[in-house]
Every structure is written in C-alpha cells, then in structure tokens.
Automatic annotation (TrEMBL):
One of its GO terms (cellular component) is DNA-directed RNA polymerase complex. GO terms for biological process: DNA-templated transcription initiation. It comes from the Bacteria. It comes from Marinifilum flexuosum. This is DNA-directed RNA polymerase specialized sigma24 family protein. Pfam families: Sigma70_r4_2. InterPro entries: RNA_pol_sigma70_r4_t2, RNA_pol_sigma_r3/r4-like, WH-like_DNA-bd_sf.
C-alpha cells in the first residue's frame, strides 16, 4: 500500500478505531496515544495491509489497548470526563460499565465501528456463533439499561427488530433500522429502541476530538518524513 492509499485508508477509519479503543480504555488521552501507536505499527506494516481489510488494524489497536490496561496494574478503567469527548459516547460507555469487557468490545465493534460478524470474530478471536450469540445477549442487556421496566418479548413492531435482538441482522439491515428511526418513519417502534438507535447515530456522526485529530495528523507527518528530511529541517532551523 503506497503513502496516498495508506493515508486515505487510515484517516477514513480513524473514528472507528478511536471509538473502539475508547470503549476499552475509557480515557481520551490514553486512547489518542494508542491510536497514534496503531498508526505507527500500521505504517511500518503498510506493505502487508490491504486497503479493504480493517481487521489487522483493529487487531493491532486491540493488542496495544490491552497491553496499556495491563500496564496500569490491570485496574478497571474509569470513565474519563474530558470536555472534548462526545457526551453521547460517554453515555454509551456508562451503559457498558457492568458488561464483561469482551461483551463491550463486540457491541462497540458492531454498533460503532460497523464491523461484520466475521470481522469481529477475527479481531477478538472467537467463533462466529459465539460472536452472534454474545451480540444478541448484549443488545438486550443494553436495551434493559435504557428501559429497565421494558418487556423484551414482543417484536411485532417491526420484523427487523426480531432479527436485531437475535443478533442475526446484516449491517445493511441495521443501517435500514437506523435510517427509519432517524426519519421517524417507524413511530410504532418502542421509545427504548428509538433511543438506542439514535444513540448509535449520534456517535457514528461525531468526529474525534479536535485536539486528538491534530495530534494524529502530526503523528502521520512525523512517520512519513524521512530521516534526511528531518535532519535538513533541523539544520535549517539552527541556521536561522
């Protein structure tokens, strides 16, 4: 993969990587650091990457984030209240706080990063059936967080809801549900489901914090500046 393709590939997916790492670390500053390291490892391995396959990128990000957690004495991540962090993302992480880390990862990869079940399976190292069943379970758990008194038994509101809560909807079908909710076309869908899909829409349309985005762009420039160019720039600076 050449420089141009690499930059397009990485920056077009930077938000997805950021969301995923943030859901693991729950700290914006640490997340940006890990995404920086992910960029660096991907740049060093760019000849091995395909511009259509994100799974190796997410595996790198996952390993780095998990190592960061272990480096912090395996303490439980505390949600970092940074003014720049999307408040909807913070709310989403609050909903995940009582879930097992692998459950939170799977929901984040599916709902925020829009990864297929097959891709998620490769990233987290679980079988397809395990991922699908876990996805079904965690969707119901999150819905229960949104609406503790809701009864999740009747899906006649819309046929796709049945598949959604069984973990068997395709990404295209889930996008269809999001679109319906955003356009208010399905007023018969329960409010709790509307809230869940609206939450995913708001996060998906949000950007990385401006400061973090600038840091990542600077990191990319640093990685792609040759040693000769760095020495030349240093000499020019000293001669002024």
């Amino acid at each position: 993969m050449d420089k141009s393709h690499f930059n397009t590939f990485i920056f077009s997916n930077a938000n997805k990587i950021y969301y995923y790492v943030f859901c693991i670390l729950k700290n914006s500053d640490q997340t940006i650091q890990i995404v920086e390291q992910t960029f660096e490892e991907c740049w060093n391995k760019r000849k091995e990457l395909s511009h259509s396959d994100l799974t190796p990128v997410f595996r790198i990000a996952r390993d780095l984030a998990k190592n960061e957690m272990q480096g912090k004495a395996a303490r439980r991540a505390v949600l970092h209240q940074n003014a720049e962090v999307n408040p909807v993302l913070l709310h989403f992480c609050e909903l995940l706080k009582d879930l097992a880390p692998i459950q939170a990862e799977i929901l984040c990869l599916r709902s925020l990063s829009r990864m297929s079940v097959d891709e998620i399976s490769k990233i987290v190292g679980l079988g397809l059936n395990n991922v699908q069943s876990m996805l079904a379970e965690v969707r119901k758990l999150v819905r229960a967080q949104v609406d503790p008194k809701g009864i999740l038994k009747e899906f006649s509101y819309h046929e796709l809801l049945t598949k959604y809560y069984a973990g068997s909807t395709s990404i295209e079908e889930e996008e269809q549900l999001r679109l319906f909710v955003s356009r208010m076309d399905l007023s018969e869908i329960p409010e709790s489901d509307r809230e869940v899909f609206s939450m995913f829409l708001k996060i998906g349309n949000a950007e990385i914090p401006i400061t973090g985005s600038d840091i990542l762009r600077d990191k990319m420039k640093e990685l792609q500046t040759t040693k000769f160019q760095r020495v030349l720039a240093k000499i020019k600076k000293q001669s002024k």
